[in-house]
């Protein structure tokens, strides 16, 4: 199975190169770094490094408290962080600067994996969440590099999608020394996929241990001072195609009862910023953008957050938070950021990527599910008009957030034990 998989990967290489060239045109200097995807890069002496792989922005954010703990407990070990996306790379730079070495993860081709591992020479490999690459896993196993999957999650949808490759992925998982799953459900799914049951434990979700960034609350207070402290404000974060229109229709409903209400909207992907701005303006909303106007004025009805890595102060400045990727079948995004700031959370019906967290928050009274996009405006309006319920729901979100913390300590215990062995 692995030989067949590798052959297909080689046959797909011309398409991979075309995709790299296309992405290079979209993302500034990415074309200068695409050789990294084939294991070609210059690196300092990284012998004995600890390597953390986080696919994109969400996984980098989840890994932040763990990377900081590794930096504190193993100050002499070089830290290598890999991502797949340019936005993930930018987030690594924003969070850690030059204190870690960033390189893009190579494609799962044997020669690319060989070059990559020869360069970074890790003493430990940590894969965040769900990435299973057979040749990479076998490469670590052959070199005696202990490999862990941390904050491991596996949705029911992914498990079904992996069915045709279950034998291949099961053999790859047998190269893993330990799987630290987010929940009992995730642990069970990894066992079904072929992981050794004795090597799968539940450690909780690293995202509950994420720190509220310095200045986020103060930044939110500053925003409120600038656009009007008493204005009702809600945020639609990490929205996807097919959601912005529903959000804007919901805001029209809100404006009918609360004419001074402000909507903050943050599309998930930067390549859609201009398209969303055009949609907002074409619907007649008075609009400001973060890149051009910095903050909205009292007359603006919609504020487009067309920058990356700034969501937390805007969550802090909002009364209600809707988390996107959930009205369309994307699977939802991180509901913990608004919960950490004691903001009530609304989500749509599709939250399978964050199933356990979302359900925990809903059961704890800190979040509510909106089953149809047409109902979003009414739910937002109800919370904005009922300040007591809004604040109570936000407090419950924070209680749930605090009660679930501790995953970093449990994962660090596993890492310490593995490195000692």
From TrEMBL:
Provenance organism: Dyella monticola
Keyword Glycosyltransferase: no
Keyword Aminoacyl-tRNA synthetase: no
Pathway in which the depicted protein is active: Bacterial outer membrane biogenesis; LPS core biosynthesis
Span of domain 3-deoxy-D-manno-octulosonic-acid transferase N-terminal: 32-210
EC class name: transferase
Alphabetized NCBIfam families for the sequence: PRK05749.1-4
Enzyme Commission number(s): 2.4.99.12
GO molecular function: Kdo transferase activity
GO terms for cellular component: plasma membrane
Catalytic activity: lipid IVA (E. coli) + CMP-3-deoxy-beta-D-manno-octulosonate = alpha-Kdo-(2->6)-lipid IVA (E. coli) + CMP + H(+)
Active site residues according to the UniProt entry: 59
Protein's job: Involved in lipopolysaccharide (LPS) biosynthesis. Catalyzes the transfer of 3-deoxy-D-manno-octulosonate (Kdo) residue(s) from CMP-Kdo to lipid IV(A), the tetraacyldisaccharide-1,4'-bisphosphate precursor of lipid A.
Family: Belongs to the glycosyltransferase group 1 family. Glycosyltransferase 30 subfamily.
Site (Transition state stabilizer): 129, 207
Protein name: 3-deoxy-D-manno-octulosonic acid transferase
Membrane topology, as annotated: Single-pass membrane protein
Source taxon at top rank: Bacteria
Subcellular location: Cell inner membrane; Cell membrane
InterPro entries membership: Glycos_transf_N, Glycos_transf_N_sf, Kdotransferase
GO terms, biological process: lipid A biosynthetic process; lipopolysaccharide core region biosynthetic process
Keyword annotations from UniProtKB, A to Z: Cell membrane, Lipopolysaccharide biosynthesis, Membrane, Signal-anchor, Transferase, Transmembrane
Major place of residence: membrane
Pfam families, per database record: Glycos_transf_N
């Amino acid at each position: 199975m692995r030989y067949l998989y590798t052959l297909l990967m080689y046959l797909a290489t011309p398409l991979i190169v075309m995709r790299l060239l296309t992405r290079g045109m979209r993302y500034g200097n990415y074309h200068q770094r695409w050789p990294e995807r084939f294991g070609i890069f210059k690196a300092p002496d990284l012998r004995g490094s600890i390597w953390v792989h986080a696919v994109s922005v969400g996984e980098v954010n989840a890994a932040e408290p763990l990377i900081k703990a590794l930096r504190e407990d193993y100050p002499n070990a070089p830290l290598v962080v890999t991502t797949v996306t340019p936005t993930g790379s930018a987030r690594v730079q924003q969070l850690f600067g030059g204190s870690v070495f960033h390189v893009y993860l190579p494609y799962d081709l044997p020669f690319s994996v060989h070059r990559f591992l020869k360069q970074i020479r890790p003493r430990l490999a940590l894969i965040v969440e769900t990435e299973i690459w057979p040749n990479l896993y076998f490469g670590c196993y052959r070199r005696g590099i202990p490999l862990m999957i941390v904050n491991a999650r596996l949705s029911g949808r992914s498990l079904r999608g992996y069915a045709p490759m279950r034998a291949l992925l099961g053999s790859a998982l047998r190269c893993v020394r330990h799987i630290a799953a987010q929940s009992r459900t995730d642990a069970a799914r990894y066992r079904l996929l072929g992981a050794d049951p004795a090597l799968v434990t539940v450690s909780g979700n690293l995202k509950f241990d994420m720190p509220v960034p310095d200045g986020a609350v103060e930044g939110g207070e500053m925003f409120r001072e600038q656009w009007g402290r008493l204005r009702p404000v809600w945020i639609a974060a990490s929205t996807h195609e097919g959601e912005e229109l529903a959000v804007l229709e919901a805001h029209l409903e809100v404006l009918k009862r609360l004419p001074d209400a402000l909507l903050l909207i943050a599309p998930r992907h930067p390549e859609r910023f201009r398209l969303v701005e055009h949609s907002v303006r074409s619907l007649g909303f008075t609009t400001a953008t973060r890149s051009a106007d910095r903050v909205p004025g009292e007359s603006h009805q919609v504020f487009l957050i067309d920058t990356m890595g700034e969501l937390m102060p805007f969550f802090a400045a909002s009364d209600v938070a809707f988390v996107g990727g959930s009205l369309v079948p994307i699977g939802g995004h991180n509901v913990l950021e608004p919960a950490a700031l004691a903001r009530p959370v609304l989500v749509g019906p599709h939250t399978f990527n964050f199933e356990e967290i979302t359900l925990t928050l809903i059961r704890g009274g800190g979040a509510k599910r909106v089953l149809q996009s047409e109902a979003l405006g009414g739910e937002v309006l109800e919370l904005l008009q009922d300040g007591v319920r809004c604040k109570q729901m936000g407090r419950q979100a924070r209680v749930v957030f605090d009660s679930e913390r501790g995953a970093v300590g449990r994962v660090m215990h596993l890492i310490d034990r593995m490195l000692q062995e």
